[in-house]
Amino acid sequence: MPITDFLERNAKVYPNDSAIVEINPANQPERNTTWREYSLIELASESDKYRREMTWKDFDLKANRFANLLFTRGVKKGDKVAILLMNCLEWLPIYFGILKTGAIVVPMNFRYSFDEIQYCLDLADARMLVFGPEFIERIDAVKGNIPKVTDFFFVGKAEETPSYAGNYAELINFCSTQVPPVALTEEDDAAIYFSSGTTGFPKAILHSHASLTNSARTEQAHHGQKKDDVFLCIPPLYHTGAKMHWFGSLISGSKAVLLRGVKPEWVLEVASSERATIVWLLVPWVQDILDALDRGDIKLSDYHLERWRLMHVGAQPVPPSLIKRWKTVFPNHQYDTNYGLSESIGPGCVHLGVENIDKVGAIGKAGYLWKTKIVDEAGNPVKQGEVGELAVAGPGVMKCYYKNPQATEEILKGEWLLTGDMAKEDEDGFIYLVDRKKDVIISGGENLYPVQIEDFLRAYDKIKDAAVIGLPDRRLGEIAAAVIEIKDGFDCTEEEINEFCLGLPRYKRPKVIIFAKIPRNPTGKIEKPKLRAMYCGERLVEAQTKA
User: Fold this and answer.
1) Distance CA 7, CA 10 (A)
2) How far is CA 323 from CA 54, 81, 292, 301, 358, in A?
3) In contact, 482 and 453? CB cutoff 8 Å
């Protein structure tokens, strides 16, 4: 069945039950009341509200309205419609509205710079773009260079709508709520997600409805979501991780809460006021909550967290010491972690399981409906305990890299997907990551691509060569360090480099600057393993201080 069937079922079976709640702490009024009490405050604009809520019936009707709006603009099966939004109440109805037309939904990273937006829209052949107020300047900058995009829909206040866009809220009010007359199957193309290695801009990953549907089944099998569960979702919905974890709520018809902010007090207060049972966190947020508790900035006695049953972490390696510390503070919490990648429709192809707390540090075993193996360079399975490349097979493997058959051939070997991650298996069959075959730096759950940062640095007239590596960091997992070789006869300071790097998005700026010669092998490639061996231990304390 296509993923849209779950939504339509929920609208019929649970029409008046809460489906999605959006909490925006930036809109928090001055108050002496509880968060739940002032959620009743009526403000002039929907987008100005602290708390917004949507039932399953409303969710489905809004998806139908947007689908029918797209039909008026000529959308047909197989067209691509891109989404560039921060998490908000409109995000998921727009996503499902696109799917209901038979079009392919293209979620985009809200961190993308204007050139990355332009590149991805062109690569995906996007015909239409839905975007929010945070992206007006970036879209203004690229509008003249994206001729394939013929229609723009703005999700925000009517008075802020750019002249070239239609206002989403105003337009859908005039559209039918009837179910779109489009026959969908699991084999139909459904979504393009973006990923990237270390060699440049993102690749476009094409998934079918079967991928999405099976990710929902995998998530629900792993975490046992029931109708009375409440999922607190903080990571961005453009990412397969957040959305596929939310699919557990979709399949069970339970409520999810989108929190637009990550401060420890916000996480605990919303978990308390909304009676959350499942919270998915990234390593930095876990660290921040524990640190705030240690400092006395927040107190557990101020919150009602008795329904919170599961805390799971993903998107980067999880330090066992961090989970041990968490369990000291929250001894009744179940803990879990999932491993995945966008090419395998996100989390769940490898899964630890709440019953395996003694194996913290492992990523787990093959997930529900998945298979794993660890292989050598020739593709042959290695012996248990030996290091090789992790490969996975299952119903969520991508169809291809869109318009990139060479890259597809490199990563897909029959039913098996090569992950690029080096791993080993213990005597009990649990898989541990050892290193990444690729050089991607995962910092706070976000991928940093060293080549892009290196290319930027080399444009500085005093720099002869540059290499970017990841350094271990207690809070973020890794941070970017730039090893810089200065041209002969020049002097350069760390302050100069940091000032030059203001031209990069904040999350891409190196946190550590090291002035040294760049080692390269006989073929001219930077010897990054050598750099990591030289600096990871030596610079750890400094890296933690600057992060």
Assistant:
1) 5
2) 34, 40, 16, 21, 11
3) yes
Task: Check residue 33 and give its pLDDT.
Answer: 47
DSSP 518: P
Beta carbons of 449 and 200 less than 8 angstroms apart:
yes
All structural domains of the chain, each given as residue ranges with its CATH number in brackets, are: 4-312 (3.40.50.12780), 441-546 (3.30.300.30)
Q: Which of 311, 421, 419, 423 is nearest to 362 (CA)?
A: 423
Q: Print burial letters for 389-412: b (CB count within 10 Å at least 16), e (below 16).
A: bbbbbbbbbbbbbbeeeebbeebb
Q: Any idea which of 17-26, 337-346, 515-524 has the lowest mean pLDDT? A: 515-524
Q: SS3 for 43?
A: coil
Contact between residue 132 and residue 117 where contact means Cβ atoms under 8 Å apart:
no
> What's the per-residue H, E or C state across 289-342?
HHHHHHHCCCCHHHCCCCCCCEEEECCCCCCHHHHHHHHHHCCCCEEEEEEEEH
Give residue-wise pLDDT tens across range 44-64. 456 678 899 999 999 999 999
28 DSSP assignment? P
- Of 30 and 270, the structure prediction assigns the larger pLDDT to 270
- pLDDT over 60 (residue 538): no
**CA dist 479 → 273, 443, 448 (Å):** 34, 6, 9
Model pLDDT, residue 266:
95
Cα-based distances in Å from 360 to 324, 353, 411, 430: 9, 10, 29, 10
